[in-house]
Amino acid sequence: MPEIRVALVGVGNSASALIQGTQYYKNAKEDEAVPGLMHVNFGGYHVKDVKFVAAFEVNKNKIGKDLAEAIFTEPNCVAKFANVPHLGVKVSPAPILDGVAEHMKEPFNIYNEKETKTADIVEVLRDSKAEVLVNYLPVGSRNATRFYAQAALEAGCAFVNCIPEFITSDPVWSKKFEEKGLPVAGDDVKSQLGATILHRNLVRLCVDRGVIVDETYQLNLGGDTDFQNMTVEERLHTKRISKTEAVTSLVPYELPTRIGPSDYVPFLGNKKICYIWLKGRKFGDRPLTITVKLEVEDSPNSAGVVIDVIRAAKLALDRKIAGPLISMSSYAFKHPPIQVPDPVAKEWVEEYIQGKRER
Predict the structure, then answer these.
(1) CA 221 → CA 218, 228, 229, 269, distances in Å?
(2) What whole-number distance in Å separates Cα of residue 297 and Cα of residue 271?
(3) Domain residues of the chain, as ranges?
(4) pTM of the complete model
(5) Which tens digit of pLDDT belongs to each residue from 198-232?
(6) Cβ count within 10 A of residue 113
(7) How many of the other CB atoms lie within 10 Å of CB of 245?
(8) What CATH superfamily classification does 4-190+300-353 receive?
(9) Phi, psi for 262 (deg, rounded to 5)
(10) Phi, psi (5° rounding) for residue 316?
(11) What fold is seen in the domain 195-297?
């Protein structure tokens, strides 16, 4: 039977939703529509073919546990929507690097560096025969992201970068993967229907209908550790760039914009609330205002997208495609190497699945 051997960097809410999703849809029929997936059968790979073989964490209460138990360990707060059987994968201790901001040491319950020996990441990846390494580090983990990207290169893994640190969209790093004969996808995953994709489509609608957009903002609130981590502005530099460019890239003129995380509200848990405001001008310079509020469970909102990306990466490995996966990155990430309208990106992915498009 085919399988895709996946390793995870970070066992937080996003990883929990991803793993639960592979169980939730393991018996999905290939001819049925599944919320959040492009296809049940993606280029010959079913959802159930995704197999988790390694995971890395800094939370001392997750380290050493079976991955099926670790995904439900605090501070994870994503809803449980699927039963996950024992996976036989023990969570390995990861180097802390810059993945943990000073204000997150207690919430993340990090291990004592003097008492815990970190895993040799490359060795674990090789021993587990991992094929795809998925990066779920906290926002602002610049050095740690590059550390794991390098580990993927050395271990011979495809790299899926779900956070707003620029690897796939960085020509230097994308060339490294190309030279190693490995695919890379990223950067900063879009949700199935989240703040960025909604904002992009509102702006695109205005541009397509001849409305001049004068100003727009997007404010996001949440209550999980992702939002708690982002209360420190210095960790948000690339996040704001990623989310802003995802919207402004669709507009052929300068657009005053403010986009990004706005506040941490603990009792919201894994719920994310987004407020989008747009001011424009239509015929006769008559004013137009759009105000939208979106509420979603944050982590499951991106899990299906990542399942598709993992399968796209496996197809690239099978076909010996190296370097940035342009089509999948344009469709599934906020800061891909090439920004195109979402319908175009979707068409590219369909062509990629069929083998009509190399990347």
Answers:
(1) 10, 10, 12, 10
(2) 5
(3) 4-190+300-353, 195-297
(4) 0.95
(5) 999 999 999 999 999 999 999 999 999 999 999 99
(6) 12
(7) 18
(8) NAD(P)-binding Rossmann-like Domain (3.40.50.720)
(9) -115, -35
(10) -65, -40
(11) Dihydrodipicolinate Reductase; domain 2 (3.30.360)
